[in-house]
C-alpha cells in the first residue's frame, strides 16, 4: 500500500492524536470521582488504543479492514447520578468538557483524512474510526447531560 506524502502526514497527526487520547483517558479515569465516569473513560481509552493500532498498521503498509462501528446506544452506560462532592463534580465536569473537545478535534482530523485519501478501503477505515469518535462524543454528552454538566 503506497501512501502519498499528504496521507502519511495526516496519519502521523492522527497517530499523535490517538496517543494523546490514550494518555488523557488514562489520567482522567484515575482523576474522576464518579466510578461510572472512570469506567466510561477506560472504555473509550480501549477503543482509542484500537484506533492507534489501526493507524500504526496503515503507516507500516499493513493491510487493514473497515469495521462497522458500534453505535453509542449499543454500549450505553447506565449509571446513577454521581454522589461526589460539588467540588469533585466540578472537576469531573472539567474532565468531560476537555474530553468532549478532544473528541470533536480528533473527529475533525479523521473527516479531513477521509476526503484526502485516494484509496477507497482506507477512506472506509478512517470513516469507520471517525464514526466511533462521534460515538465517544455522544457517550460523553449523555453522561454530562445526565449529571447536569451540559447546558
Descriptive report:
- The protein is an all-alpha fold.
- It is built from four helices and no strands.
- Helix 1 packs antiparallel against helix 3 (86-116) and helix 3 packs antiparallel against helix 4 (120-146).
- The protein is elongated, with a radius of gyration of 16 Å.
- It starts with a helix and ends in a 5-residue tail after the last helix.
> What's the helix-strand series?
HHHH
Mean pLDDT figure:
92
* Spans where pLDDT lies below 50 across 5 or more residues: none
Number of separate helices: 4
Shape: elongated
Got a strand count? 0
Distance between the termini: 46 Å
Rg estimate, integer Å: 16 Å
Biggest beta-sheet profile: none
Which structural category fits the helices and strands?
mainly alpha
* Percentage of residues in strands: under 5%
Portion in helices: over 70%
Brief write-up:
By secondary structure, this protein is mainly alpha-helical. The chain has 4 helices and no strands.
Q: Could you outline the blueprint of secondary structure elements for this entry?
A:
Layout: H1 5-31, H2 35-59, H3 86-116, H4 120-146
Helix pairs in contact: 1-2, 1-3, 2-4, 3-4
Amino acid at each position: 500500500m503506497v501512501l502519498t506524502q499528504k496521507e502519511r502526514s495526516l496519519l502521523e497527526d492522527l497517530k499523535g492524536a490517538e496517543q494523546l487520547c490514550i494518555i488523557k483517558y488514562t489520567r482522567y479515569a484515575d482523576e474522576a470521582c464518579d466510578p461510572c465516569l472512570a469506567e466510561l473513560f477506560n472504555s473509550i481509552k480501549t477503543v482509542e488504543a484500537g484506533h492507534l493500532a489501526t493507524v500504526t498498521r496503515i503507516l507500516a503498509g499493513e493491510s487493514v479492514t473497515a469495521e462497522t462501528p458500534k453505535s453509542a446506544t449499543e454500549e450505553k452506560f447506565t449509571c446513577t447520578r454521581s454522589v461526589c462532592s460539588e467540588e469533585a463534580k466540578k472537576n469531573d465536569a472539567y474532565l468531560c468538557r476537555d474530553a468532549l473537545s478532544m473528541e470533536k478535534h480528533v473527529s475533525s482530523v479523521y473527516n479531513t483524512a477521509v476526503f484526502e485519501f485516494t484509496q477507497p478501503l482506507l477512506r472506509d477505515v478512517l470513516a469507520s474510526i471517525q464514526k466511533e469518535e462521534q460515538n465517544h462524543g455522544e457517550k460523553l454528552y449523555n453522561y454530562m447531560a445526565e449529571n447536569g454538566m451540559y447546558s
